[in-house]
Design goal:
The protein is mainly alpha-helical and 145 residues long. It contains six helices and no strands.
Length: 145
């Protein structure tokens, strides 16, 4: 499996079926992370023939997840994974259903930061949203004279 650049945080044991409000909040945050300019968006954009501004291309997202599964040896390239993952991705990004296994897959395939992963787990576990959207990485601080 591809190595992560961030230390892997232990994923909390999410309930088998999270409450609808928790799934919705985690799904909204996941979609916001993937839509925001940055490395997550760049990762799925390379699989898009024609981008639609302001919209996540779910087919491209399924390709990222499928590639990660193929490269990790969890599936063979002969498997028709993008098509099989389509409904799972749609339900997750739409906030209709987001299981712990699906969240782990997104975190791993998109090599999410520890902070983004922790926030998604908090939301899926039903901890309230802070109202803040995805935060762009901070610019390095200038050295003091």
């Amino acid at each position: 499996m591809p190595a992560s650049t961030a230390p892997a945080a232990a994923a909390p044991a999410a309930p088998a079926a999270s409450a609808p409000a928790a799934c919705a909040a985690a799904g909204r945050h996941l979609a916001a992370l993937l839509a925001a300019p940055g490395r997550y968006r760049t990762r799925w954009l390379r699989h898009v023939a024609r981008a639609t501004p302001g919209r996540i291309n779910q087919a491209a997202v399924t390709r990222v997840l499928a590639e990660w599964l193929w490269l990790g040896g969890e599936a063979s390239e002969g498997d028709i994974l993008p098509r099989a993952l389509r409904d799972r991705v749609s339900r997750a990004l739409g906030g209709r259903a987001l299981s712990a296994a699906t969240l782990r897959l997104f975190v791993a395939a998109f090599d999410m930061t520890g902070a983004d992963e922790a926030r998604l787990w908090d939301l899926l576990d039903g901890r309230p949203e802070t109202g803040a959207g995805p935060v762009a990485p901070a610019a390095p601080a200038a050295a003091a004279p």
